[in-house]
Amino acid sequence: MEISVSKECIAHAKDKMQKAILHLEDELKNFRAGKANPGIFQNVLVDYYGTPTPVPQVASVTTPDAKTILIQPWEKKLIPAIEKAILDSNIGYTPANNGEQIRINVPALTEERRKELVKQAKTEGENAKVSIRNARREVVDAHKKYQKDGLPEDVCKDAEATIQKETDAFNKKVDEIIAAKEKEIMTV
Predict the structure, then answer these.
(1) Annotation: CATH topology of 2-30+110-186
(2) Which of 60, 144, 156, 178 could form a disulfide with 72 if both were Cys (CB 3.0 to 4.6 A apart)?
(3) Per-residue pLDDT tens for 63-103?
């Protein structure tokens, strides 16, 4: 009985750790790395008949080349609303429309801006590590409580060792993700 409780706690913590990784990856998608990335428009909301709607749900967002993003609205009357949403979102792009579609030229990042983005990425990575450590701490605290309630000490020690291995593995994964993003940002 007590071993299943222990395994359940560890599985729950691993789930939380995995969610921290997914959140980190999601946050890093929004970092502009000097090349066209249509994913950056997922958080840009357009007023679509009174409902705030992400740009990809009201238009086709494509990248014909590495320095251009093309937004083709499904309704031409949305062009001004999409342009306004892009400007208001403060993502650093200036839209230009020809009456049919919106074209965005992605400017090259300055060295200073690249370093700033790397710093922000590392901050996001540290936030993910904090979430991972919090999940680990919850398991350790729960096992200390269970030990007071009669769970054998060796089961608690095994659980702590297991969760520490998982924590180390997830922290290593965060470091790998951040290193890859840093390389992507710093590549000119």
Answers:
(1) Topoisomerase I; Chain A, domain 4 (1.10.132)
(2) 60
(3) 888 788 888 998 888 888 888 888 888 777 788 888 888 88
